[in-house]
Amino acid sequence: MSPVILRVKEAPTGVPLEAESITPDLFAERSREEIEALPVALGNQARRLGDFFQVEGERSDEIEIDGAIGRVKWVGSGMTLGRIVVRGDVGMHVGAYMRGGEIIVEGNAADFLGVEMEGGLIRVTGNAGHRAGSAYRGSKFGMRGGIILIEGNVGHEVGAYMRRGLIVIRGNAEDFLGARMAAGTICLFGQAGLRTGGGMQKGMIVCMHPVELLPTFIYDCIYAPVFLRILFKGLKSLGVQVPPAQVDGSYRRYHGDLAEIGKGEILIPA
Amino acid sequence: MEINGVLIDETYAEAFTMHASRVLITAISKRWALVAAQSMAGFGTSVIGCGCEVAIEGVEPQETPDDRPGVWVLLFAPSKKGVQEQLIKRIGQSVMTSPTSACYNALEAEDRLSVGGKLRFFGDGYQISKRLDPPIVGNGGRPRRFWRIPVMDGEFVVEDRFGVQKGVAGGNFLLLGEGVPGTLQAADRAIEAMRKLRGVIMPFPGGIVRSGSKVGSRYKFLNASTNTAFCPSLRRQVKSELPEGIGAVLEIVIDGLTPEAVGEAMRVGIRAACGPGIVKISAGNYGGKLGKHQFHLYPLLAS
């Protein structure tokens, strides 16, 4: 099945375009004309998708977006199947509430990437903004399943309130990584910012570089958790090669945050 | 039919449906994976007295979830509940206790049994659940949940659920030889060849059983007793199946995940056993009244 290709005709520059309709769930059974007629919102104006994108192809659960769409929000939000490839930067809320399928961003993603997602895979070859995989303000939990893989750096509060799932960051993270996380796994290959794991209840944060921890995290021991071997092997299938020294090596285990129930863990190579 | 001068009896092996699971045990080294597997497979020769039939599957896994050396173990029990009970007991007492071990489901099946989900309570509240989603776990598109139970050498990782499917237990053949040494050598040859096959186990000691049984006994309290028809010392006292010149009989019992796997193991084993010291090869059955599966020796060996 050949993909539906969306070529940017008129990239929004001021008010962002809200394009929740760019999802394989809606494209899979629609003709080209029907896809063009899908609703999008430019500020308070109801517009058609075809006003902003030239549509090629039809009835496919694969979507390719050609060109930077840094001012387009909600791409792939709530999707349950299929694949979206964005060849360029993408706006906020990509893959929010996503339940299945795959999103590949060949560029940078703005804030709120994969927020409260429940399943599926998001790959970003560039950087991602703040609060990737986290919760919207007022929600009890963030990401509840699935995988977010970011090759570059991320902003603040990534994985905040996370409930389940996996976030892999090849670059650096800013402050409050995994803040208040309830469970799930974050694997950070770069440097962490301040207050990593602040307020975390449960869950695991693996930091491949030394990190300044809050005083409410307590050192336990140096050991080699078998689970990390399973995790790293799984990452290999995503193209993330973890150096043998880190696969076979030992980790310093800290538990916290003792300001909460303290059942979270932060692992740092020994 | 004759193979290498050994007479093949025109008969069949009768086998039963049982439920089966496959477990993968890993550890820091092959030696320690084997130690845990051997412990788990201990006292697991026959459902008659052990509650299950369990043994190490001969073929070694090429790949394991944690990239450490691993050993496969197949376990058969009469019911799903029986499989679950035995897995919980044996993994809990034999695998979890073994240094550096981890234990994973190695059978993709529709039905799955909670095993790690029960063993986790050993963690006394400090156990940690980790769920990994597809695509980083190849589990037919389903997530895999692991339990990390704190133990004195670090953590014991055990998978939450183990697959269970219907299997076949009780495939068999009997080696009728002139004496013990030659018959045992032939049985060893058979076992060596059969252990190269996947999906089958030979649950008796070394894969071989010398105390074959028949259904019932003269004692009311016993539902199985020695297979008198194949005991050389009773040839003149009972209705014997042994021709003149037979000094020893050994049986090989095969349990497999599918009838095809059992049939193939019987074929390979019998062909390997046919040689010096063996007079005849036969198989055990109950007149077709008890088991669902029949493995006729002639068609098997003709293929």
Which helices and strands appear, and what pairs or packs with what?
The complex is a heterodimer of chains A (about 270) and B (about 300).
Chain A: E1 4-8, E2 17-18, H1 24-27, H2 32-36, E3 39-42, E4 45-48, E5 53-56, E6 62-66, E7 72-73, E8 83-87, E9 102-105, E10 121-124, E11 144-150, E12 164-169, E13 185-188, E14 204-207, E15 218-223, H3 226-236, H4 244-248, E16 251-256, E17 264-269
Parallel strand pairs in A: 1-6, 2-7, 6-8, 8-9, 9-10, 10-11, 11-12, 12-13, 13-14, 14-17
Antiparallel strand pairs in A: 1-5, 2-3, 3-4, 15-16, 16-17
Chain B: E1 2-3, E2 6-8, E3 12-26, H1 30-40, H2 47-50, E4 53-56, E5 70-77, H3 80-95, E6 102-105, E7 111-114, H4 116-119, E8 128-132, E9 144-151, E10 154-159, E11 161-177, H5 180-194, E12 200-201, E13 213-215, E14 224-226, E15 248-256, H6 259-273, E16 278-282, E17 293-296, H7 297-302
Parallel strand pairs in B: 2-16, 6-10
Antiparallel strand pairs in B: 1-2, 3-5, 3-6, 3-11, 3-17, 4-5, 7-11, 8-9, 9-10, 11-15, 11-16, 12-15, 13-14
Helix pairs in contact in B: 1-3, 5-6
Commentary on this structure:
- The complex is a heterodimer of chains A (270) and B (303).
- With 270 residues, chain A is mainly beta.
- Chain A has a domain at 111-269.
- Chain A has 4 helices and 17 strands.
- In chain A, a hairpin with a 7-residue loop joins strand 16 and strand 17.
- Chain B has 303 residues and is α+β, with helices and mostly antiparallel strands.
- Chain B folds into 2 domains: 2-14 and 167-302, Alpha-Beta Plaits, CATH 3.30.70.520; 19-165, Alpha-Beta Plaits (2-Layer Sandwich).
- Helices cover 23% and strands 34% of the residues of chain B.
- Chain B contains 7 helices and 17 strands.
- Chain B has helices at residues 30-40, 47-50, 80-95, 116-119, 180-194, 259-273, 297-302; strands at residues 2-3, 6-8, 12-26, 53-56, 70-77, 102-105, 111-114, 128-132, 144-151, 154-159, 161-177, 200-201, 213-215, 224-226, 248-256, 278-282, 293-296.
- In chain B, the strands form 2 sheets. Chain B has a 15-stranded mixed sheet that branches. Chain B has a two-stranded antiparallel ribbon with strand order 13-14.
- In chain B, helix 1 (30-40) crosses helix 3 (80-95) and helix 5 (180-194) packs across helix 6 (259-273).
- Chain B is elongated.
- The model of chain B has no long low-confidence stretch (mean pLDDT 95).
- The interface between A and B is medium-sized, with 28 and 21 residues.
